[in-house]
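seq:
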Amino acid sequence: MAFIFNICNKNMANDKNIRGHAAIFAANALWGLNISISRTVLSDLSALTLTTFRMVGAAIVFWLLSLFLPKEHVKHQDMLKLFFAALLGVVLNQGLFTFGLSYTTAADASIVATATPILTMIIAAIYLKEPVTNMKVMGIFIGAMGALILIMSCQPSVRHPGNMLGDVLCLIAQISFAFYLTIFKDLIAKYSPITISKWLFIYASICFIPFSYADIATIDFTTFSLSLWLRIGYIVIGSTFLAYICLMSSQRILRPTIVSMYNYIQPIMVAILTILMGIDGFGWQKIIAIVLVFLGIFCVTLSKSRNDFEQTGREL
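struct:
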């Protein structure tokens, strides 16, 4: 009977992990498309305006959805934690990334994003005491190589030179995201993704509106084309609302380093978009790069966690 119970528990854990991997894959696929789409919107709107649209729009959608769901009471001490989570996970991460993208290229922003798993591994080792194993280091290295090969295999017309300021802003955005993934893992597990997200984005909106109000007040919305509205709609609904639901769902299940490894999916989405637009082709370099990315994710997933080592110690 105990044997059957253990098998059932393992099967349930495996199903849960699969859902976690699927959720974070979807989030990064949405963010990967967002890199190229946001870059085109920034030719019509300032980075400050676009970021405010994104934060306020997502806050409205999350709050409207929460009205149809069971109410969750958030403890007062957790409200303060949510504010700092909003600063790291939304304001600095998405805000600085959008500003950085306005100065640099989608390719450079993707290259900078490959640093996130390395940063997350280091922060998790210090803050959560997660072990830095050979398998984990190898997985991050393999995944990073795949992402870099994919980016560098783009046609020269796709690889325009970036800007140092933009690259630095994108790097700071990735550092803040790595801290967010690690520090607030326990907080994310306490409440539903909708509850967490609605507070994150209302706090983020409060931070942005005072700085962008004057800029937005001068906008003539009647000049917006349908194409521009659709792209803004994707940024708000696709790469923010849906992506953060997927992110929160995966954070409740997977370790921070595994979540961050899926950043390597973003260059794949950028490459697919350039191929579909006829800007670039699909060669053997891209096939090798994609295989390396998924091999790297697989290695990090197999690496032992702190709980694994503690369990082994108890068994011994």
